Amino acid sequence: MASTPVTRDTINPKVLECEYAVRGEIVILAQKLQEDLKNNPKSHPFDEILYCNIGNPQSLGQKPITFFREVLALCDHPALLDKSETHSLFSADSIKRASQILSQIPGQATGAYSHSQGVKGLRDTIAAGIEARDGFPADPNDIFLTDGASPAVHMMMQLLIRSEKDGILCPIPQYPLYSASIALHGGTLVPYYLDEATGWGLEISELKKQLETAKSKGVCVRALVVINPGNPTGQVLAENNQKQIVDFCKKEGLVLLADEVYQENVYVPDKKFYSFKKVARSMGYGEKDITLVSFQSVSKGYYGECGKRGGYMEITGFSPEVREQIYKLASVNLCSNISGQILASLVMSPPEAGDQCYESYSAEKNAILSSLAKRAQQLEHALNSLEGVSCNRAEGAMYLFPRIELPKKAVEAAKAAKTAPDTFYARRLLNATGIVVVPGSGFGQAAGTLHFRCTILPQEDRIPAIISRLTKFHEAFMKEFRD
Fold first, then answer.
1. Which of 29, 347, 386, 388 is a good FRET partner for 330, with 20 to 30 A between their CA atoms?
2. DSSP H helical segments within 92-229, as ranges?
3. Rounded Cα distance, 149 and 140, in Å
4. How many angstroms separate the CA atoms of 366 and 31, rounded?
5. pTM tops 0.85, yes or no
6. Cα separation, 371 vs 392, whole angstroms
C-alpha cells in the first residue's frame, strides 16, 4: 500500500502547536457521550449533555431578538416586502429598516458579494453607533466587517507577526483564540498574569516586567491584547486602569488590541464598560498618538447570534500605507457574509425610544441581561460553597473561572492517567453528570493553580439542577480522593 502523502510528521508544525481548548478533548468526549445517549438513552447516569464549555447562548435555549430576526428575514427574502400580509406579520420598524438596508446592498441581494470592508451603508450605521456610544467621532472607513471577531484577530496577527521573534502580550488566563492564532502565524505569546487575588486585576508593573523579560530574550513585542470584560475571568476593568494601559501602550509603542465583544455583558452596579477608544480620546490621544484595534462580535452581548458569524474591527492610528495592506488582507477573503454584516449594523443601531417596537425590543434585551446576572450570581455562590473551590465575582462576560484545590490523591490519580489534574476533574465531572466545562490549563493559569471555565448560559430554570449535579459530584469526588 502506497504511503499517504500527508502524515502528522509532514503537516505544518504550526498547526500541531495550535490548540483550542473550548472545543478540545473534553468536548470531543462529550460529543461521543451524546451519541451514546442518542443510541441508548440509559447508557449513562444522566439523560443529556449540558454544554457549559463555550459562549453559545442559543444552543442552550436563548431566543433571538425578534427585531433583529425580522429584519434579517425580510432582507433575505425581499419579495415579502411586496406582500400585504407582511404588514400583519412583521413590525413596521422591521419593514422600514429592512427596506433601508436593502437599498444599501448591491443588487438588493444578500447573496451578492459586498465591498471587502463590508457594505458602506452598514459601516456608516456602525460608525454612528460607535460615535453615540463613545461621544467621539468614528469613521466608516476605519471599520472592517468580518465573520465574527475571530477572523479580525487572525488578520491582525498576520499583519504584525513576521517571525518567532515577534511577540504579542496576552493575558493569562486568556481566550485560546489568541494563543492559537499567535501559534498559527508563527509568533511568540508573551504572557502577563492577571492577579486572581484582586479579582483578576491587570497590574501595569506586571506588563512592564513581562515586556522586559521578552526583550531580554530577543523578542520584539508588537502588541498588547486586553480582553474587557474578561474571558475566561469575567472581570470588568476600571476606567483608571484603562488609562494606565493606554499610557503604557503609547510609551512602549505597542498596538493595543482591545477585545470588547462582551461590552453589553456587565452585571454589577459598581462597574461600567468603557471602550478603549473612548478612554484614549478622553485622554486627548488622537489618531497619531496611539494605534488601536477594537473588536466587536454579534455572538455575545444579549444578542447571542453566534451562528450568524458577524463582527467587525475598528482600526485607528495606522498609516495609509499599512491600511492598504490591511485592506488587501480583507480582499483575499472577498467579503464577510452579508447576514452577519446586517446583524452587526443592527446591534450597533437597535430600536430607539419612540420607535414602535422599542418597548418589546427593550423588554427582550433587559430580560436576557437581568437573567444572565442572576445566573452568574447563583453559580458563583454555589461554586464558593464547595469544598476547596473559590470563585471571583462575575462582573461581566459569560463565564466563571473558579479555582479548585484538589487532594494529593486526585493529583496522583491524574498523573497515573497521564493527564493534567484539571482535565482529570473535568472528565470525571462529565462522565458523572453530563456537564461540560473547560479545564483551566486550556486558558493558561499561574503555576501551582488549577481552574475550570464554566459558562453562565444554561437557562434560568436549569441552573438549580446543574448546581445540584455539580455539588453532588464534587462532594463524592472529594470524598473518594480525600488525603
1. 347
2. 92-104, 120-134, 149-160, 176-184, 204-216
3. 17
4. 33
5. yes
6. 19
State the pLDDT at residue 248: 96
Half-sphere exposure of residue 107, counting CA atoms within 13 Å on the CB side? 10
Asked if residue 219 lies in contact with residue 165, where contact means CB atoms within 8 angstroms, the answer is yes
Total residues belonging to the chain: 483
C-alpha cell, 306 = 453566534
Alpha carbon distance 135, 57 (integer Å): 30
In this structure, are strands 166-172 and 220-227 parallel, antiparallel, or unpaired?
A: parallel
Amino acid at 251: K
Q: Which residue has the higher pLDDT, 63 or 23?
A: 63
| ∠ CA 55-447-432, rounded to 5° | 50
Banded pLDDT at 379 (limits 50, 70, 90)? very high
Confidence of residue 23 (pLDDT cuts 50, 70, 90): low
Give 118-122 contacts, CB < 8 A, sequence gap 24+. 118/143, 118/144, 118/145, 118/312, 118/335, 118/336, 118/341, 118/344, 119/145, 119/338, 119/341, 122/341, 122/342, 122/344, 122/345
* C-alpha span between 212 and 457 (Å, rounded): 39
Q: Cβ–Cβ contacts within 10 Å for residue 124, how many? A: 17
Cis before 232? omega within 30: yes
Q: Distance between CA 343 and CA 373 in Å, rounded?
A: 24
Single out the residue of 43, 442, 360, 392 nearest to residue 195, CA to CA: 392
Amino acid letter, 470: L
DSSP assignment of 57-99:
GGGGTPPPPHHHHHHHHHHH-GGGGG-TTHHHHS-HHHHHHHH
Summarize pLDDT for 167-212 with one digit per residue, the tens: 999 999 988 888 889 988 989 999 999 999 898 989 999 999 999 9
Pairing of strands 399-400, 403-404: unpaired
The beta strands (E) that lie in 427-477 are given as 435-436, 438-439, 452-455
Backbone angles phi, psi at 50, to 5 degrees: -110, 105
- CB distance 195 to 201 below 8 Å: yes
What's the pLDDT tens digit per position in 114-158?
888 899 999 999 999 999 999 999 999 999 999 988 999 999 999
Question: What confidence category does residue 351 fall into, taking pLDDT thresholds of 50, 70 and 90?
Answer: very high
Contact 225, 358 (CB under 8 A): no
